[in-house]
Every structure is written in structure tokens, then in C-alpha cells.
Design a protein that fits this description.
The protein is α+β, with helices and mostly antiparallel strands. It is built from 5 helices and 6 strands, in the order E-E-H-E-E-E-E-H-H-H-H. Helix 2 crosses helix 3.
């Protein structure tokens, strides 16, 4: 599968939402093409470089997203909201003349197991966060039983540095993600963790 790639200083997980403001011609053209063909693009975390200008060096694991809303903003920029659909691995890339990066990617399957009883504390933690901040997915109680969904929402919401979020994205199953989240939370509790993002 060949898709346009958008390197950013952020990590998005499947079913997560992200708002972007666009001004570079290469990305405005990309969005026009996505809207015209009802396709998406890939978001990858920048390893080195900037979001604007030259193509940045980025991590080869990212998330395929689709545009779910767009609007012309007061400052003349295009605002879009995207929703994560599926993780992917970049196999090879090519740079177009307009500096848009295209990637041959392999889409990665998500596990669909239910949350084991021994990991129920993570679901309770997510419910607590969702209640406190009145997050919209409180209206979907059945989702709190889905291991992948719970691990992805916690990875988004907890105050981990961006490289830790990337590491969580790269793990292939929810239980591994929970174990890594637990290790990060224990570091935070013990004061050994600093968030530099």
C-alpha cells in the first residue's frame, strides 16, 4: 500500500483524534487528494528535523489516519481533524518534487482480545481519567473491556514523553503495552521519570 506520509512531533494511536493546521502547499495538496479520493495518509513521529520545510527523518512505525472534519480557519489556514485507523510499518520511501514523502507501508493488525481480569486496573484508571475530564468516550462503556482500545487511550492521555509514546505504538499487543505503561507509571511514582516532551 502506498500512502503520503506526514512527519509530525506527535504520536497518534488507532481511534485517536488529532487536529492539525496546514499551510504548506505539499500538505494542502495531500489533503485535497485525500478528500477527493476518500483515502487517508500516514502520521509518523519525527526523529530529527522540523515539521515544516525539508523532509524530516522519522520513525518507520506510524498510524494511518482519515480526515473526519475540515474547516478554513480565521487566519486563512486549513484546519483538519483526523482519526487514527491502523498502525503501519514503512518499508520504503520516495520524495516527490514538492517534497511530499510517499511510503510503501504494511498495515499491522490489532489484537481484539478482551481485557484480562488481572489488567482491569488499567480500565479503572481510564474511567477515572475520562470521568474527571468529561471525555466523550464515557458514553461507550463496552469499549472499556477491549484491551487494545484501553491501552491506546491510556498511551495517548498519560503524561509520557513522546519517545515513550512511540515505543508504546510499536508494541504489537495490548498486554505488552500495559506492562510498559505500568513500568512508566512506577517510574513517575518514584520520581525517576522526567517528561521532556
Amino acid at each position: 500500500m502506498k500512502i503520503a506520509l506526514f512527519p509530525l512531533n506527535t504520536v497518534i494511536f488507532p481511534e485517536g483524534e488529532l487536529q492539525l493546521r496546514l499551510f504548506e502547499p505539499r500538505y494542502l495538496d495531500m489533503v485535497s487528494e485525500c478528500l477527493r479520493t476518500e483515502t487517508g495518509f500516514g502520521i509518523c513521529l519525527i526523529r530529527e528535523g522540523e515539521e515544516a520545510g525539508q523532509v524530516a527523518d522519522f520513525f518507520p512505525m506510524g498510524t494511518y489516519v482519515k480526515i473526519i472534519d475540515w474547516d478554513q480557519m480565521d487566519d486563512g489556514l486549513l484546519g483538519i481533524t483526523v482519526k487514527g485507523e491502523q498502525r503501519f510499518r514503512v518499508e520504503q520511501t520516495e520524495i516527490q518534487p514538492d517534497k511530499l514523502c510517499l511510503g510503501e507501508v504494511t498495515l499491522l493488525d490489532e489484537d481484539d482480545e478482551l481485557l484480562p481480569v488481572s489488567y482491569k486496573g488499567f480500565s479503572d484508571l481510564l474511567k477515572e481519567i475520562a470521568n474527571r475530564y468529561e471525555l466523550p468516550f464515557m458514553d461507550e462503556p463496552e469499549r472499556f473491556e477491549e484491551a487494545s482500545w484501553v491501552s491506546d487511550r491510556l498511551a495517548e492521555l498519560l503524561p509520557f514523553e513522546i519517545t515513550a509514546k512511540q515505543s508504546l505504538l510499536e508494541l504489537d499487543n495490548a498486554l505488552s503495552r500495559f506492562d510498559y505503561i505500568q513500568a512508566l507509571l512506577e517510574k513517575i511514582d518514584s520520581g525517576q521519570y522526567s517528561n521532556n516532551s
